[in-house]
From TrEMBL:
It comes from the Bacteria. InterPro entries: Tir_chaperone. Gene3D superfamilies: 3.30.1460.10. GO terms for biological process: protein secretion by the type III secretion system. The lineage of its organism: Bacteria, Pseudomonadati, Pseudomonadota, Gammaproteobacteria, Enterobacterales. Pfam families: CesT (PF05932). This is CesT family type III secretion system chaperone.
Length: 137
């Protein structure tokens, strides 16, 4: 395991102890689910990178195939700093709408990593509640 991934594993170990769960990085990826079995957060640390990517599936874009107005609203959300708190919306290769955030690994302490994880998980929860309202509008 490369040094950056070892650092991330130490942070995951500490976070896992605080949350009472076990988290392991595998090939640069660690996935965590919520109580309902939905993605809570996926962490990716690509080989040779020092930037951590956090992302989470919100919904399948097939639900919005022909709703251009809704797509425009979703893309405009990326500029709503108050609502997005540094995150952005993106489509993955499987056409899933995801909320994303990136953070340099350097300088993250167990406390700041824990705060980052909890804040991202909360942001994803809030977006899951907000987006159906936007889609229905």
């Amino acid at each position: 395991m490369m040094m950056q991934q070892q650092n991330l594993q130490r942070l995951l170990d500490d976070f896992g102890r605080r949350q009472g769960i076990s988290l392991t990085i595998d090939n640069g990826v660690c996935a965590m689910q919520d109580e309902q079995g939905q993605e809570a957060v996926i962490l990716e640390l690509p080989a040779g990178s020092d930037t951590l990517l956090l992302h989470c599936q919100l919904f399948a874009s097939a639900l919005l195939t022909d709703q251009l107005t809704t797509w425009r609203l979703l893309m405009k959300l990326n500029f709503e700093m108050q609502a997005m708190r540094g995150c952005w919306l993106a489509l993955d290769e499987e056409e899933q709408m995801r909320i994303c955030y990136q953070q340099p690994l350097a300088g993250l302490t167990p406390a700041t990593f824990s705060a980052l994880m909890l804040a991202f998980i909360q942001q994803a929860r809030e977006m899951r509640l907000l987006l159906p309202e936007i889609v229905a509008a």
